[in-house]
Every structure is written in structure tokens, then in C-alpha cells.
Amino acid sequence: MAARQTRTRRSALRISAGAIALATVATSFLGCAVTPSDLERWEKTSEGPKRLSAVVLFDKYPQPLRVDAAMALINMKPQKGQRVGIDRLVKGSLACDSAWMERKQDEPCSKTSLSPETRAKLLEALVPRIIEELKKAPPQLAQNGQAAPDPSYKYKDAAQMLLTYDKTPLVSDPALKQQLLDALRDWAMIDFTRKLNDQTQMYGMEQLLRLIGPTSVEKLPTVMDRNAIRDLSKMADLIDKLADQKTKEEASKKLVEIVDYISSEQWRKDKEPEVNAANEARQLKPTEKQFIQQLSEYQEETITKIFVAMKKVGGQASTSYCLKLGADKNRSVKLRTGALTALENRIDKKDAESIKRLVELAKAKEAPGAVVDLAFRLLKQLPRDSVVKQLYPLLDIEDWKVRRLAGTTILQMSKVEHIAEFMEELGKRAKKNFNPMEARAYAAYIAELKDGSPLEKLKPYFKSERVTTRVTALSYYLVNGSKLDVATVKSYAPDPDKVPKCDEKDKDDCAWECIVVGADKKDEKKAVEDVGDFVTYCILPQIANRDPKKDEKPKDKPADAPKGGTLAGGQ
Fold first, then answer.
1. Whole-prediction pTM value?
2. What is the pLDDT of residues 444-455, one digit of tens each?
3. Where are the chain's structural domains?
4. Helix axes 232-242, 205-212, angle to 10 degrees
5. Number of CB atoms found within 10 A of residue 353's CB
6. Phi/psi at 273 (nearest 5 deg)?
7. Which of 231, 343, 422, 496 is the least crowded, having the fewest Cβ atoms under 10 Å away?
């Protein structure tokens, strides 16, 4: 009897111990009667986040309380700069992420997890709560001009993590997902520049806008104004990466409006107090002339920033503006080249009017060299078929340096199959001030053309009726020949046709003369009167001792020839 009573007492003790253990778990994760005030208190305690997760996870709690617990996790203050509550909500409650669990101990997710159906019902109630918070107006500026922290950031970060968690779909309802994306899009455009630069967010604005897609930046042009100059380049970058063409065109128009204002006298008046304050802060006392110069430099620097944004956005409005400014002889070279630089790879190959304006700028007599160079560089970026017909007439220009730019630009866009076309146009057009430097430049580019043999295409022009094409063809040997070509080149030495003459004003830059080594082994300048002189004094001395390229096969037997020799001036 006594033994039976002892066994009964031991059994009762075991039952009591199990009940206590179960009660502990229940108290730890579930609680007895959880109230909203408990949730608010748990946001701030060390074990509170686990309790909040438990409320979200366990189905003994009513739906509204579970949603409140999820909101409490979002509302938790950051720990060491990290929003651990949002991470816990998504990975430690809604998804029970296995990788996240490996770093934790004694988590509610180790006891239970949400079924897809239950999670969908929770999010059906939670997402509208998040959207409601996203729609709230941002905090007003304080008296000191500083804005209070924006509480909406945490809801944006929570929404973004819900949408980007990739191990299992969380917001699975398409309609609900779109509502959340729309709310995020509208949220982003309110107080955009502040949000763009705020570093406290879990996700940057570019990540958010990429998530939403092209519609995320549809309203961005409306945010671009004269007060956002510091951020225009960032905005333009986002538009370049994400926007459709319609949005890009709208942004292009806005940038032109902004740069028109910055270029105005009104801008200078508006900035006078700012420049004065800067001078006072640095204890500077500029003269009136110096102050005007300060304003001018400030204005140019600011306009240059807009060019950076224009280059990213492109668009017809920016293209037209930059071409107009690039051609404006009353503007500084810095602004003109800055405007043209903004057009790099931005001119539409079908935009015949812009291409025409660019060609006109390339041949403008009063344009500075830097502007002309940029105009040709922009033309070179376009498809050959779009510009070559407009470039060939530039070979008529008497200024041989501009003509050379046009010719070399055409050749850089060409292949071997285009050599005949180029040589014919050159022969018809290039008449005045044609010189050996120009011929050599064309030959150098021809020698590098692909898809065929340049030499084979040039052979008909060694005896061309036009001297310009003849010396250009022969210049192929000047830049690419070797001692194996001496005999071939010598066969053209008897040519008596006179070379073109240069204007008196250009005789120093455009001289037909070469430097050879004389009998006393000193450099001697030789005037070139005819094609034969060009062969004898300019080409043969250059190639007589030049070794052939490794893959070059002998074309002729080597022959003796004068030693040394360069074009006058080392050209």
C-alpha cells in the first residue's frame, strides 16, 4: 500500500513538472492574455521581439492582434543602425527563413510556422496598414530649418523587404502587390530630394525605383526644378536607367527650362546675396569687376552641372539647346565645348536637322579648334550612312586643317570597300592648299582599314589624272612601306606633274618640302615641285632602310636608294 502511494506521488510530480514546462513555453511565446499595451511595451524590451514574433505566428491569437504585433515589429527602433524588427518580421515570422534561424536560438519559428493561407490573410490586413502610413505627409521643417526624422521610412523599408524576399512569395495577391507598389511610387515622389539623399534607409531610392519599374520615374520630371540643381545629375541618372522615352523627353524639356534660368540675368541677381555672404565668410572684399567675374564663373560652373544631367537624359530639347549653344560665338569656349560634350552618343541617327547643324558647326570659320574637333567627334559617333553625304562637301573647304578633319573622320567610319569612293570625292573636291601632311594623314587611316587589302584598292590611283589622289595613294608607302617596296616606288619617280600650291599665308604650315640627309651628312631641306620630287625626296628616303612587318611577304626586290629623310618639320 505504501509502495503504491509512493509511485502515485512520483507520477503526480512528473505531471506537475511537465505542466510547469508547458506553462513556461506558453508564457514565453504566447502569454496568457496579450493586450495592445503589451505589444507596445515589447517593442522596447530585450525579449520583446521574440514575443511579438510569437503573437504573429501562433493562431491562438486573434487576427487584429497578430497584425498589431507585425506593426509593432516594424515600429521597433533601430539597433546599432539596423532595423532588426523589420528583418525579424519578414525572416523570423512571416517566412521563418532557415538561414536566419541558424543564427538565432529559441525562436518561435522553431515551434511553428505560418501556412501560405494564414500568411496571405495576415498580409491582406497588414499591407493596407503599411499603405496608410506611406500616405501620411512628411514632417514639417523645424524652426532651425531641419526636418524631423521621417517615420514613413520604416514602412517603406518593410514594404520593400516584403516585395523583394526571394525564397518564397510573401505578397502573393497580384492586386495587393500592385497597390503596395503604387503606394511606394507615390511616396517616393513626395519630398523626393530629401529621400534621395537620406542614408538611414535600408534600401536606397534607386533600389526602390528599380523595383517599381518605369512607372516609378514618370513624375520625376515634375520634381526637377531650379531648387534641385545639386541633385539633377542623380535624377537624370535614374531617368536614363529606368524611364521610357516619353519621360526622358519631359525631363529634357525641364533641364532646358532650368538652364535657361541659370543663364539669365535674373539668376545673377538671385545669387548676388549668396556670393556676398560667401565673400564675407572668407573675409574677401572684391572689386566690382572681381565680383562680376565671381558671378560669371559661378554661373558657368552651374550651367556645366546641367550639361552633365543633359548628357544622361538626352532628348530632343536638350539636343537642340546644346547645338544652339555650341554654335553661339558669343558664349565662352568652355560653355560651347561643355554643351557639345553633353551630346556624345545622344544624337539620333535619324535626326537629319541636328546632323545638318552639326556639320555646319564643323565647318564654321570662326569656331575655335576645340569646338570644331568636338563637332567632328560627334559626327564620327553616328552611322556612316547617316552623315557621309553631308561630310564629303567639307572636302571643298580651302582650310586644309578642317578639310583634313573631315577626311579623316570619313575614313575612320569606313572600310576597304569605301576607299574608291573616298579617293574619287577627294580628287574632285580637294584643290586648294592640299599638302603632303594632309596626304599622309589620309594614307595613314587608309592603311588601317579593315575587310580587304587597302593597297589593292589604291593601285588604280598611283596613276590617277588628279594629283591630289595620286600623292595620297603614293603616301601609302610613306606610312606603310618598307625597303621591299623601293623598286615599286622608284618607278613613279619620273612623274613630272606639278604638286598643288599653297596660299602665301599658309606657306609655313602647308609647304611642299622634305628634309633629306645631304652629302655632308647634315639635314637639308628640299623643295618639292612635282610628284617625282615627292617620291624621290619624301618617300624613298623614308622606306629605304625600313624593315618590313613580320607577316609581310616580299613584293619587289630591294634596290639602292638615298638614306634618311623626313617630311619638313618632322611631319
1. 0.79
2. 999 999 999 999
3. 1-32, 33-138+150-209
4. 30
5. 12
6. -60, -40
7. 496
